[in-house]
Design goal:
single chain; 2 domains; 6-stranded mixed beta sheet; 4-stranded antiparallel beta sheet; 31% helix; elongated; binds adenosine-5'-triphosphate; ATP hydrolysis activity; ATP-binding
């Protein structure tokens, strides 16, 4: 994924590209001039609080909602123009769209039939997502975790290059979350798929995604890599003589500044190399009582980005939801 405004060139037809995408429902701008790319071989987190416009954006990418303006492209094409949609993009929009009386297996078989995909692929996928036995039972009795796995199997039926998944970890237990993370990593890193997952919690996807697109009230508030979000590495150092240590660190080419909010003797050193900081302290003969990596508090950053007065969700509950809603 690259920053807004960069020129888009389809790479092997696997990019997701959103350009100036806007959707209004009556007077509500649910999605407001969004621009971003999603890169193949990586997992991108599409993040924002409830009502930020994530689902509407995914629905526009999947041709389920018509944009008011702008473009939502998969491999350089609109969904409606794709020659083999099920083989190009797999979607997991919600884990509830199953006929409750139908077995998971039959649900997938029905989907497979629409894309000319053999039943053998269904069984292969049920195995892959870990529900081969449960798949013979009625989907109505599935746990949320099983529904998520079934939804993922459905998205993968046509072995598409692009996966768009709405809150795929929702309702999973810790073991399920670990499994999902590993599986999505495998699909992106080993198979080169382009994976976009939405979530309203950065913490939930922090360990899964490499890139992020963060939106609030339909507009982009930040995009980049997780490393960029974390910022430059730094260390928290607590010293008996912080002034002396700061001077020594400075001489060693590691700028340091006092961190009064962290209590007495606390410094922030602009390096993640704890061993180097320890050596400087030893040479300067300053006793340390704490030396630890200082990481950006992502949860706080996420809140700051999305909960500022201009981005605080003004949409929830104040606009009637239209039944068709899609202006198609
Ligand atoms: N069909 C519709 N008609 C009217 N308003 C709609 C419609 N669909 C979505 N909205 C509104 O658009 C805004 C964005 O909704 P959307 O579902 O895209 O957000 P979201 O980021 O996916 O939120 P969540 O995490 O709660 O699913 C919300 O205010 C929602 O009420």
């Amino acid at each position: 994924m690259s920053r807004a405004g960069t020129e888009h060139r389809p790479r092997e037809g696997r990019d997701v590209s959103v350009r100036g995408l806007t959707k209004t429902f009556g007077s509500l701008r649910a999605v407001d001039d969004l621009t971003f790319d999603v890169r193949p071989g990586r997992i991108t987190g599409f993040l924002g609080p409830n009502g930020a416009g994530k689902t509407t954006t995914l629905r526009m990418l999947l041709g389920l909602v018509r944009p008011t303006s702008g473009e939502a492209l998969i491999g350089g094409e609109r969904y409606v123009d794709l020659q083999h949609p099920i083989r190009t993009v797999g979607a997991g929009l919600e884990a509830t769209g199953f006929h409750p009386g139908r077995s998971g297996r039959n649900h997938l078989r029905a989907l497979a039939a629409t894309g000319d995909i053999p039943d053998s692929r269904v069984d292969e996928l049920l195995e892959l997502v870990g529900i081969p036995a449960a798949a013979r039972k009625r989907a109505g009795g599935y746990s949320m975790g099983m529904r998520q796995r079934l939804g993922l199997a459905g998205a993968l039926l046509g072995d598409p290059q692009v996966l768009l998944l709405d809150e795929p970890s929702n309702g999973l237990d810790p073991e399920g979350i670990r499994w999902m993370r590993g599986f999505l990593r495998h699909l992106s890193a080993d198979q080169g798929k382009t994976v976009l997952i939405s979530s309203h919690l950065l913490a939930e996807v922090e360990q899964t995604v490499q890139d992020v697109v963060i939106i609030a009230n339909g507009t982009m508030v930040r995009s980049g890599t997780m490393d960029e979000l974390h910022g430059e590495p730094a260390a928290l150092v607590r010293a008996a003589d912080p002034q002396r240590l700061a001077a020594a660190l400075d001489r060693a080419g590691i700028p340091a500044r006092p961190l009064p909010e962290k209590g007495e003797g606390a410094l922030e050193a602009a390096s993640g190399d704890l061993a180097a900081i320890g050596r400087v302290a030893l040479q300067a003969q300053v006793a340390l009582s704490e030396l630890s990596p200082r990481r950006t508090d992502l949860e706080r950053l996420f809140l700051e980005l999305t909960d500022s007065p201009q981005h605080r969700n003004r949409n929830l509950g104040d606009t009637p939801v239209t039944t068709e809603g899609d202006n198609r």
